[in-house]
Design brief:
With 548 residues, the chain is of the alpha+beta class. It has helices at 18-34, 37-50, 52-56, 64-73, 75-83, 93-122, 149-159, 186-212, 362-367, 423-427, 472-491, 533-542; strands spanning 137-144, 164-168, 178-184, 214-221, 227-229, 238-241, 253-264, 270-281, 293-297, 302-304, 307-323, 329-333, 337-340, 345-352, 369-377, 380-383, 386-389, 398-406, 431-439, 444-446, 452-468, 495-504, 513-522.
């Protein structure tokens, strides 16, 4: 006699391992939270908020001197802000972290949505709901006479031009009942995906531009003589390079500013800056006078060798001639920095080294250097002997100068302010004031040892910026595609419409009649059918003329 095998007792559910509990599950939940659209929107908003300090506070890569002055003026608060990287926002660790998280969130969010959208494009429209009368828009239409329900379903489907539609034939539960299901507005989700992928592309393009791009600024006197060639970082007054730019492979080109004009409004506000520049690509091989001439204005840069040359600012550069006792002359044209933008009252400094051989002993040569510190007024206005300016237009130019003799620090090897003499040298007695005067063009100041200082006039100087961004076209295309995707997602309406065709024998004297129930559903409030749904439903079933 066979015996039954013993029954195996049910096994208790296995407990998750420590690895799954403390690592896998939290990581999965964190990834789901990070890749949700809500998180992506929050990170995008946070990125916009994080960029505000970069617009309101001075940034060290753009103006290191102004940034340091801001920190010094705000004491401990300025030091704390500096430690928080608020003066280099776009290169800070916290801004980069937000940027990277937004990138990961968008990628993790968009890839599943794209796969889902592709599946929905391949799938048939959804089956007709059981109770169409519960839809917010529905209409029941009776078609009298003997009508073939299959032909009527085909006609309804034919009237739905531009819709993705299908016909569900009768089944066992719905004998003799044909159903039509149609959808339109798939471009709405497509536009939404295009917008977000373009945003992702824009983020990548900006990152590429920051890593492989660079910006340099340089002040040039607009006298048709001073120029610069984009061959190394040393030719710039300030240079901000991307993380992967070392300055050894800059695209070579040369520019020279021949002329500069500035126009002003009656209130004294600048109206337009225009610089006439000569340029050449590659290493210069011809006379600069034969180079092509281009007009460069504000927001109208010169595009050259993949770079853009902008006009940022301008000022005046007084020209001084120092004549030493032995008759030798030294002439310098030095840019002065504007102190008052309304009147272009400017200040600056000039350092002049004696001619070679004039003082055989090196110590004597350094003791007889000439330093000039002063202000320039385009249109002079005097309060006694105090010089100021009444207009930015140079109608009556004057300079007020103080002349010093001694060691100006020219060959000390220490960095110095280009627009002021070193006050420490004055306090130590190494620089001694030997004269001062208010001069207009052509006037001369005589010093005690026979040296003379002549104010010869002035030139205009121009501050230019060379910007190279290899991803600028990519940024433009991404922004345009973003706008197009946004317009598509806002203008396209997502709708569904269903029709159920039933043949009934409940008419008078047992006559057959065909009842068509039409229902519509809008996926969003803005895509509502409006008050004309009844007319649209009748036109769908009976045709434009209302006949069968």
């Amino acid at each position: 006699m066979a015996t039954r095998p013993p029954e195996t007792p049910p096994q208790p559910p296995s407990r998750p391992s420590s690895l799954q509990r403390y690592l896998v599950a939290p990581t999965r939940n964190l990834w789901r939270s990070l890749t949700s659209m809500r998180t992506a929107l929050a990170l995008l908003f946070l990125l916009a908020v994080a960029a505000i300090p970069g617009a309101l506070l001075p940034q060290r890569p753009l103006n290191a001197a102004k940034t340091q002055a801001y920190i010094d003026n705000h004491g401990r608060l300025g030091t704390i802000m500096d430690r928080l990287q608020l003066f280099d926002v776009f290169a800070s660790s916290w801004f980069t972290a937000i940027y990277a998280l937004l990138f990961v969130s968008l990628v993790g969010c968009l890839l599943p949505r794209m796969a889902e959208h592709l599946r929905s494009l391949r799938a048939r429209p959804v089956p007709v709901p059981r109770n169409l009368a519960r839809m917010p828009r529905h209409e029941e239409i009776v078609v009298d006479g003997d009508v073939d329900p299959e032909q009527l379903a085909q006609r309804i489907r034919g009237n739905l031009r531009g819709w993705r539609s299908t016909i569900y034939p009768p089944d066992q539960s719905k004998v003799g009942t044909y159903e039509v299901s149609a959808e339109k507005g798939y471009l709405r989700e497509f536009g939404n995906l295009v917008f977000h992928f373009a945003l992702l592309s824009l983020l990548i393009a900006v990152a590429v531009g920051k890593m492989w791009g660079y910006e340099g600024t340089r002040s040039l006197v607009a006298d048709g003589e001073e120029g610069m060639c984009n061959t190394s970082t040393a030719v710039y007054d300030s240079f901000r390079a991307g993380r992967l730019v070392d300055g050894t492979d800059l695209q070579p080109f040369c520019i020279r500013v021949d002329d500069f004009t500035a126009t002003f409004l009656p209130s004294g506000q600048p109206d337009m800056y225009t610089a006439m520049m000569r340029y050449t690509e590659g290493a210069p091989t011809t006379d600069p006078g034969t180079w092509p001439l281009a007009r460069v204005r504000v927001n109208e840069p010169l595009r050259l060798a993949g770079s853009r040359v902008y006009v940022l600012g301008n000022g005046f550069a007084p020209t001084f001639t120092v004549t030493f006792p032995d008759g030798q002359k030294r002439t310098q044209t030095v840019p002065f920095a504007p102190d008052e933008m309304q009147t272009m009252l400017s200040s600056g400094a000039v350092r002049v080294d004696p001619p070679a051989g004039m003082f055989p002993v090196e110590k004597d040569r350094r003791r007889n250097q000439i330093g000039i510190e002063g202000i320039f007024a385009p249109t002079a206005k005097f309060d006694g002997t105090l010089l100021s300016s009444s207009s930015p237009i140079p109608k009556d130019p004057y300079v007020a100068i103080r002349v010093y003799r001694g060691d100006t620090g020219l060959d000390s090897g220490r960095p110095q302010n280009a627009y002021a003499l070193d006050t420490a040298l004055m306090h130590s007695g190494q620089l001694r004031r030997v004269g001062q005067a208010n001069l207009k063009p052509g006037r001369v100041l005589h010093l005690d040892n026979g040296t003379t200082v002549t104010f010869d006039g002035y030139q205009r100087w121009v501050s230019i910026q060379v910007s190279n961004d290899p991803a600028q076209l990519w940024v433009l295309v991404s922004a345009v595609v973003m706008l197009l995707g946004l317009l598509v997602s806002l203008l396209v309406k997502r709708r569904r419409v269903w029709a159920r065709i039933r043949v009934l024998d409940d008419g008078p004297d047992g006559q057959r009649r065909t009842v068509v129930t039409v229902a519509g559903l809008a996926r969003t409030d803005s895509a509502g059918w409006g008050d004309g749904f009844s007319e649209q439903a009748r036109e769908l079933v009976l045709g434009a003329d209302g006949s069968r």
